Structure formats: structure tokens, C-alpha cells
Amino acid sequence: MLEKIRDERQLKALTGLSSEKFSVLAEAFANVYQAEQQQAYERGLKQRRPGGGQKGKLPSAEAKLVFVLYYFKNYPTFDVLGTHFDMARSKACENVHRLTPLLHKTLASLNVLPERTFASAEAFRASLAKVELEQLLVDVTERFCQRPGDNEKQREHYSGKKSVTP
């Protein structure tokens, strides 16, 4: 798939990244991937040394990165993903679940992961002080809340929405 990407626009459409950002991420991803392969070999989880054996449909770290970024940018089904990358549905699923933690480690090593939880409003404000913003957009969703059995406590959690039963 990587060799089929013709230009900057197509790379951005498939992965969400410019070629400059992709190359920085690809270098860091390759380092994390090689370190994981070496650790798996040293722990005895792999019999062959890193780099040995069959190469598969995603032969390089860059191809693996394009694969996982494409998945997260477009969220295709595993059937569609497998078709695009010339592999079985089960292999597409396996590769996504194997490469996702590596992408997370890579983003953490580059210190570009967003902050997900804050202990207080002051901690939230302190994290925003590091960033120069004109506007702040916060994407929030309503989260499921387990309703208590006690009627008085249930009223505290009632959102005002009515249940509609067909």
C-alpha cells in the first residue's frame, strides 16, 4: 500500500498526516517496533531473531504504520481493511490489535498523546497554559451511569429524558 501512495494529498487522505509528520512518526514507530521485537525474542516468545522469517503483507515498519493509521483514520470493517491490504479478515484484525499498542507507545514516546483525565479544574487549566489557543473545543459525550437501587439516589442521577418504548 505504501508504494501505491502517489503524493502528499493522498498520504494525508489515507493517514491524516503530512509527509513530514509521517516521516517523524515512522522513525519513532520503527524504533519502538524493533525494541518490541527484540524484547519478545529475549523473553523467549519468539524463536527467530528479529528480522528473521517470512515478511508477510506488511514487510516494513512504515507499511505497518500506514496500515494502523489508515484503520484509525477511516475505521473500515476488517473485511474492507483486509481487501485494501491484500490479507485475510482475521489477519487484518490480528494486525490492528498487535500494532495499536505499538502506535500508542510511539505517540507516548514523542509526548503527543492528549491528556485524558484531570484531578481538578486547576489541573485542567494548568495543562491549557502550555498551549497557545484562540478557541478551545472540548468533545464530550454522555457516559452511562449505573442507576442505584434506592429511589432517592436514582432521582439524583435522573437526566430528565423519558424512555420511549415501542
Account of the protein in words:
By secondary structure, this protein is mainly alpha-helical. The chain has a domain at 2-109. Helices cover 54% and strands 0% of the residues. The chain contains seven helices and no strands. The protein has helices at residues 8-15, 19-42, 61-74, 78-84, 89-109, 121-129, 151-157. α3 (61-74) crosses α5 and α4 (78-84) crosses α5. The chain is extended. The protein starts with 7 loop residues before the first helix and ends in a 9-residue tail after the last helix.
How many separate helices? 7
Q: How does the helix and strand content classify structurally? A: mainly alpha
**What proportion of the residues is helical, as a percent range?**
40-55%
User: How far apart lie the N and C ends?
Assistant: 47 Å
Helix-strand string? HHHHHHH
Largest sheet report? none
Strand residue percentage:
under 5%
Compute the average pLDDT.
Answer: 84
Using only C-alpha atoms, the radius of gyration works out to 22 Å
Structural descriptors:
single chain; 166 residues; mainly alpha; 7 helices; 54% helix
Q: How would you briefly describe this protein structure?
A:
With 166 residues, the protein is an all-alpha fold. It has 7 helices and no strands.
List the helices and strands and how they pair.
Blueprint: H1 8-15, H2 19-42, H3 61-74, H4 78-84, H5 89-109, H6 121-129, H7 151-157
